[in-house]
Amino acid sequence: LLNLSTLTRQQHGRCFLVREPKLFEKRKCLNMKFTSFQRQLNLYGFRRLTKGDDRGCYYHELFLRGKAFLCQYIKRTRIKGT
After folding, report:
1. Element holding 21 (H helix, E strand)
2. Could you tell me if 6 and 17 are in contact, meaning their C-beta atoms sit under 8 angstroms apart?
3. CB-CB contact of 49 with 57 (8 Å)
4. Which of 1, 3, 34, 53 is the most interior residue, by most CB within 10 Å?
5. Span 36-64, pLDDT tens digits
């Protein structure tokens, strides 16, 4: 995961939170708006959690702390016409 203070992985390591979306957009290393980042997360199968202690975090079953080898199995969903 990007080493930015605006992105923090939850202590259990199964999801991450974008703490400050406005500050996130100002980071020049990404060259994208927060909404574009959210769209990319959705295309890769990440889901935003809406309930519980992890509300607002993004989760993917193959994106786990300490198991980077699983990331190779995360695939981008094809969009019709691309």
Report:
1. helix 21-26
2. no
3. yes
4. 34
5. 889 999 999 999 999 999 999 999 999 99
